[in-house]
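Quarterly update from the structural biology core.
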Amino acid sequence: MRNMFSVLSFQFSVKRGFLAAVGVTILLGAVTLEAQDKPIALKGAKLLTITHGTIDNGVLIMQGGKITAVGANVVIPADAQVVDASGMTIYPGLIDSETQLGLTEISAEPMTNDLVELSDEIMPHMHVYDAFHAESALIPVARLNGITNAIVAPESADTLPGQDSFIQLAGRDANQMLLIRDIAMPLNFTGDQRRNKGGFEKRKFPSTRMGLIAQLRQTFLDARDYQAKWADYERKKSDADAADKNPDKNKSVDKTKDRKPAPMAPKRDLKLEALLPYLDGKKTIVLAAESPSDLETAVNLANEFKLKFVLDHISHSQSVLDYVAGLKVPVIVGPIYQAPKEDERYDAVYSLPAQLSKRGVKIAFASYSAHDVRNLPYQAGFATAFGLPYDEALKAITINPAEMWGVADKLGSLDAGKTANIVVANGDPLDIKTDVKQIYIEGNAIPMTSRQTQLRDEYSK
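Predicted structure, tokenized:
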């Protein structure tokens, strides 16, 4: 799959309300981001700033990969490249809070899948960035519908499958696209992680929910013990070093006689070591559970070890939403196209975002996919039909995930000083009829092409 890309050239310009191509050389998956020396001014569009309302007939200026000005009466620099975006709608690049982009290419072909390591249920020392495939043909497909950033996570077949990365959907290679390598870690407790497939005789531990939670608890206890042993070693080593530097002058000349032996360092355990930032509350656990009982069990475990967490996959927990709101943590929702369970209302999953928002819960949408990331804005739009306020739907794919992942100083809204990840479209971002006409990432106009547009153009002839 790494050879399934080609080099294309396009020209970019704006004329009579639509954008067409200009001189950018790209690889189908990866895109080289050039330094943006001259300012670019987009004028005449509706600006959905997210944080300070809508600006009609506004101006947005980018330079050096950053937004430098946004407003209705912005003075355009004399040396700026001016783009007439009249009739367009401009909004910040969208953020998908859980994908498998770069970990899979063709679902039916095992050689193209690096989704999860199944040799053990507890694999916190696995890193998404080690498998991330920057040249994936699926990345441009997502990018062309306005998604500029995403969380990449392993599949959920393990309770602790490894650590997530936060990516930007353009860059010369994986190093440039991986913005935060170990940003969070999933803790999955949906029941799907049980090793009980293939009949009773083929079961292995943990084959029950009791086994899953017991295994997790023991793992965190082992990590605490590992941390204590290293702290004890560092203390003893520090004491020994200090004694060597400041010997007691009253002792005999032969100081080796009473000297304590140097402490021996504990054996490194990458599995336990990976858990320490999470036990210390420095990084976020993404706690996934679907049913009320699983949710409460997982939350109790997280609280037992004082983990900082956000909730995920709570699609069938309508009966405990007041409990969820009381936790005062963000929630990742989606995909909301799931059918209800037999004891649920027909709109139980569809209305979940609205019910959470009504209770003051900060939500963010996720596609949980690699192939369907492009549909992220339509999930938010679909949720508005079931009660989610429009402004909250927009926030759930822009500023909310930016805040959730600690990047709100750079992404999630049209504000001066933030990264110039900009979408130019001919209508409402949540409307399926809207076409994205141009994407800017770090102020670079990204060619609007993908494997799908290539095939369309080739065979439509």
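Residues 7-92+446-459 form a domain with the Urease, subunit C; domain 1 fold (CATH 2.30.40).
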